[in-house]
Design brief:
The structure holds two protein chains of two kinds.
Chain A lengths: L13 H25 L3 H23 L2 H17 L10 H19 L33 H4 L3 H13 L2 H12 L4 H8 L3 H22 L4
Helix pairs in contact in A: 1-2, 2-3, 2-4, 2-7, 3-4, 4-8, 6-9, 7-9, 8-9
Chain B lengths: L3 H12 L5 H12 L2 H23 L5 H12 L4
Helix pairs in contact in B: 1-2, 1-3
The chains are: A mainly alpha, B mainly alpha.
Amino acid sequence: MTTRKAAPDSALPPALDAEQARKRADKDHDLGLVKKAQAGDYAAFEELVTRHSGKTYALALGMLRNASDAEEVVQDTFLNVFTHLSTFRGDSAFTSWLYRVAANNALMKLRKRRREPVDSIETMLPSFHEDGHHTHMPGVWAARSADKLVDDKELAAILEGALGRLPEQYRVVLLMRDVDGLTNEEISDVMGLSIPAVKSRLHRARLAVREELDRKYKKD
Amino acid sequence: MKTCQDTAELLSDYLENQLPKEDADLLKSHISDCPACEAFIKSFRVASETTRKVLLRQIPQDFNHRLTSFLRERTKQG
């Protein structure tokens, strides 16, 4: 296996370097707030809530595709965090712990629902000619920016449908990485998966969502 | 020599600078000669970015206020 982590920070491209520095500062700020909250400072707990409620909601919404279920999951998650705050030792990022609790709560809620039909991921992946070439060019949507596409309700509905069709073990990894911004290593820790398994699920989930958009968006 | 299928399989690693240089160079060489792959990569990035934006946009405006009020009540604060 190729390891590239030995490279010193100074060798990283500037954008990656700045991103890592920002993540490190965020993580340190969270840990400072957790320590204050553990000492009884409720305002520090509320700051943690305010800093992370949005992305926790987005994770729950992506998992459940129902606004009131997602809100309930976020409420339960922060109550769980408040109750068990004294057990958090700071060995990992606060957000890893938070999103683990949120994902477990969302999965429990999903399992209480009537089973929804879920596709095999294989049926959602792109196909290629026998010689390995693409069968077609992506649709015109692919030339537009995410900022433009996000305003389109048809696209949002297709995206939500795509997330719903993803098997949950793929969906949760995609949401943690692309919506919540956890690293592959953090997801591996949160989900108890090997890093290659995280990378494989993430990549297939991304391919599947892209493919769904390409199959269904702006086809008329 | 890489094919479009190889490129698609390695795309996440490629975009996150996780590929060994030799593989990354082979991919780059294929992409520079393949308009379908170039467009595929763009669509792959746009789909991920749009997923994030669509979900984050759906956070209700008063959500944090409702949540903090709920938590204060349930934790007997304020």
